[in-house]
Amino acid sequence: xxxxxxxxxxxxxxxxxxxxxxxxxxxxxxxxxxxxxFHQKIETAVQQILQQPISLGxxxxxxxxxxxxxxxxxxxLTTAHDEHPFIIQELRLSxxxxxxxxxxxxxxxxxxxxxxxxxVERTTDGTIHVQGIIPQQSSFDAxxxxxxxxxxxxxxxRLSWLAKGADVMELNNIGLSLHNHNHIHQMEVxxxxxxxxxxxxxxxxxxxxxxxxxxxWLGSVYVETEDLQPFYFLxxxxxxxxxxxxxxxxxxxxxxxxxxxxxLGQGIAEQDKVTGxxxxxxxxxxxxxxxxxxxxxxxDENFVDHGLSLQATMDNADQMHYRxxxxxxxxxxxxxxxxxxxxxxxxxxDMVHGLALQGVVDDLQMDLSTNQEAVISGFDIxxxxxxxxxxxxxxxxxxxGLDLLIKGxxxxxxxxxxxxxxxxxxxxxxxxxxxxxxxxxxxxWDYQDKVLTLLAEDFEVGNSHIQTKTRLHLAIPLxxxxxxxxxxxxxxxxxxxxxxxxxxxxxxxAGAVKWLDKALVSGRVTQGGMLFYGDLKxxxxxxxxxxxxxxxxxxxxxxxxxxxxxxxxxLQAEVLFLNQSMIIHGHKGTILGVQLSQVKVSIxxxxxxxxxxxxxxxxSFDRMMRFxxxxxxxxxxxSGVGGFNGVGDAQLNLRLGIPxxxxxxxxxxxxxxxxxxxxxxxxxxDLSVDExxxxxxxxxxxxYARNLQGHxxxxxxxxxxxxxxxxxxIFTRIEIQGKVDVRxxxxxxxxxxxxxxxxxxxxLLRMDMPTSTKTTGLPVELSLSSDLQGLSxxxxxxxxxxxxxxxxxxxxxxxxxxxxxxxxxxxxxxLFSAQLELGGDxxxxxxxxLAIAFxxxxxxVSDQYAITVSGELDYLNVSAWLTALERIDRSGQDxxxxxFVDLNLAGMGVSQYHFNDTRVVIDQDDGWNIKLAGxxxxxxxxxxxxxxxxxxxxxxxxxxxxNPVATERTESDISEAIDLQPGDVxxxxxxxxxxxxxxxxxxxxxxxxxxxxxxxxxxxxxxSSDWLNMEMxxxxxxxxxxxxxxxxxxxxxxxxxxLLHLFAIKNYVRNGDMTANIELNWNDTPQNxxxxxxxxxxxxxxxxxxxxxxxxxxxxxxxxxxxxxxxRRFTLDxxxxxREGFVFDRIKGHLSLWNGSAYTSNFVVDGxxxxxQLFGRTxxxxxxxxxNVTVRPHLSSSLPLLGIIAGGxxxxxxxxxxxxxxxxxxxxxxxxxxxxxxxxxxxDQPQVNRVEKKREGYGVNR
Length: 1262
Prior knowledge:
By secondary structure, the chain is mainly beta.
């Protein structure tokens, strides 16, 4: 809805309201005093008429002069969707009663509104909405109503304006007076819009005409502002209102025929110190803007009358024509003015700030025309600019101290340039501004066919270092991005010493620039020239699509081509820069007094910046050696020739490759010295090689003689020699191949390795020797390498090696000047590496620290531990390594100080058991901490220190799986057992939460070992689970150097079936509740337990079980019943009962173990079917039998005998052997009643004989 609709609604509402009130007031004034009594009825009536909510405050009648009127307070209109209500604090309306009587209709005299508050918004579709008022369609003419009222006054009001979602603009202290008489309208408005726009605005208007006929309007408008921000409403990122404002602005506007025909203004811009007047006139279809009166303020804050005028007109073709005149205008002020308006695009604004133009426009006259697309269609210019300067910005170079004279038009023109003490600054190309003592020349332009051409002839520039004369032809197509330049520069009388400022460093690699700065030491440039030909976009012509050529001749030059190498003096050469290459052709020169016949210094590609130097010199071997010695090859860089002396004649050919930029290539030095029958001396090491023949060469990293033939100690040898860099030290590598006995040289230093090795093999001896007097006192790098054929290593697996095996062993060490070694590094066949530090506190040959690393990581001795072992192994025999370490300890080396181990073991052997995939970490604090992590072993072992007498050795494992080793490894390194005494074993507390034997869970195990009187005592040892309860105790004593071990075991409420699994006896018995008491002893250490030497007693009692597989092996013999004959004997069928084995009620007996045999006299197996008694001897050492077996059947039973049993270590062993005894089949019992048998012979083929005896009754013989 338009603004008129809103006003219509407002006026209509007020009018209706007055009419309603007037009717209710009645005809007398007496009713006015009681008008508020009808407040509710009035408010309801108004709401019905307006069709929206309205709230009215106090209502009263009043006389305004001679005119009666109505006063209403606190009017508030609201809607359900608007956030802000429409509020009028006080509304006064008076009635022109004379006119009302004469015209017989209500005539208003005036309207006064005090304290109005309105929120007006304009949406994106242009609709204007006053919040709080519901728009309604009506034919009521609001504008006519407003401009027909004689008087309208608005005081102390506020308007909030929101346009298109922008920030809300607040108009405060609004005051308005409007007087209307027929077609004459006078209005005065003032308000305060806020500092973002202006501090105050005041406007006066006299207008004559019909409101709805704009063409009839005639009048004037005066507008006055304070602190106006003229660019507030512009959509500018520069936020110009923050830095530019007009302190005072007054404008007179003339309106004719409904259009603005003239604007005359005067103002002062505070920040930019400008004052003046302007005039805008409408002229036909165009306009004229004259700002000739503007006067800027000088830095000393005085207004100076400078000339500045601008006229703009538009012709009938909609083309703009601009005329500008300047006189005495400073560029710096003009730049600041343009930037401060905020009207410039961001990139242009940045450029204006960056260039920082300075200078004085003494005179400028310019005419400029643009077409409808605002494209320049023509211009004429005549200007003089003095002391012009600008800073460099982006790719635009800077200049200083130039006078410019510009004259021309859009087609042709000339810029005359002169200067003294000027400068040229192009930081993208040159490192420093170029100081120009003299500049003189002209630059012409020519514009045809959209191509701008710049021309210069004999443009002269010079200073004390060089004089130049330039010719230029530059073509710039305006519709393309390519500009073509043809420029020639001739120069002479140059000084090489001051070349740095003139090198185009910005387009050259830093390395090339750095080299040129140092290489061109001095000399004179006699003559030279420069040619630039090609498109500017292709510069610097990496693909040779243009030509940049710089050529000059040098005389008496000094070239420092590389630090450390001797300079070339008295150089006469031609220098050529061609695009990305540089070539210096030297015709003459000297190095160390040696004449150079030819020398060439070149860079093929400046972008890669790789320098090559080629030269040839002749002289004696002494001079060649001196050159090498005093170069980086023989001095501070990579050569060991400092300690060499040579005799004979030689020729030197030198080739250098020098990278001047990163990734441009490798540093290369190549040189050859030909030798014939010379002698090479190493006086510092008392060595010499005689009758030397071959080629002596060097490069950037080595000094070498390959396949050099000579005599050492009178014998012919093959020698290779290379110089090696070792940090800042200089070494020469000497390799001697052949049968050389090097053990004598390293025997003392490597005693540890020699003591554990045997045999001889072919060796390569390599020495890296300090060969310069600068490195006197530095150690000799010594290495030995061999395939080890014929050498054995006596250490446990995986370090062990047999003589006939091959591998690759390399030992490295350093020998001091006194022949002492401090560290030996060893690597073997990629399997492991070791590092040994030599030199104890009192013995230089003793070793201090050892590191062994298995796998790819190199071994490094630790500062914290004497021995470190790390890496990954497929197998480690702990017992064998403990034996080996014991042997090392007995050899006099103290390894008990500190040890650190971090090993990942695929397999680990301890005694007769094997553990899979275990990580072992051993470190030390007050004692030893052994951490085990794996599927078979998991937990910690805490070993207290030797001086800790309060804490036991603690073995605390979460899990331990005992996997017996089926086949032992045959290794020489485990043949010797550890020699232990009871006193060597500290008090020990063993706790295993889950102990397994293979896959069988034995349960929780606890054991306490304590030291006694020359004894080791085991107390309170328990193994318990849901099927096994075992208590153990015992001791190990030594008396008169004889060890004796005793062991007592008590087994209660345990499963015989699962105990048999410990002996790999499965499917022989089911169930069986077992109780046993076992007493064992043997005359040896605990770890040397053997069945042949054990003595003791075993009591066994087993209840309720079933023997399986009774028809085979041990089950069949112990049953001593041929169940296949029972049905025939008793005409009964027991087949269904015998299918599941032989059920027993009890097994009871006593075994005595003595001298390798087990004896019993009361071993009984009693079941529902039969009772079996065994007595006699089983040879545990001889593996034989001498047993009597009696079988007494229980014929009334219907239960089958299920199998054989055994229990406990002793019983299990005896019954297992008995099972072996009865593994062969024989005839079962065919007769009823008791039967007796004898069992003799060995375990593999026992002899079973039946004892015949005569029975009474039926006469049946057995």
